Amino acid sequence: MRKAKAMYRVVYPEWMDFVATIASNGIDKKSAKKKIEKYLVSRNAGSKETRRKSMNILINLFFEQNSELNLKEKLKDLFLLERKEKNKLYIEMFRQYYSFFNDAYEILIRLEKVNGKIITTDYYLRIIEKWGDTSTIKRMARTVKRIYIIFNED
User: Fold this and answer.
1) Could you tell me the pTM of the whole model?
2) Lower CB count within 10 Å: N or C terminus of the chain?
3) Judgement on whether residues 75 and 17 belong to the same structural domain of the protein
4) Pairs from 84-90 (Cβ < 8 Å, separation ≥ 24)
């Protein structure tokens, strides 16, 4: 089985918008962490540990992979996009950084096309087949499913 980069926390489009704003302003990672921490506290985003993990995901997406994806250029245009288009860009960022997310998201898309909805047991069976049957994988699968639902709401 392949090893997955851990991703246990759901992040929301509004959080991504906030981080996109500060990332597009060219702020350094250390300063960004402080701003994100304050922002998450103001949003009552869970315990200190939960906020730390959420912040790590946001930092990974916007600062760690920035050079690989040429994000600065994409982020300049982000603010001109409608919510659905922004969410598509954010999902692409997840998919490029987290291989598990990419695989799980692809499974969700296929299941919804075939069944007209996502059947959770089918989803978990396909995840387990590809990634193994561990509590960590199941937890990450739940996270990806929640993000799929949140980012694809009308």
Assistant:
1) 0.87
2) C
3) yes
4) 86/13, 86/16, 86/17, 87/13, 87/151, 87/152, 90/13, 90/16, 90/61, 90/151
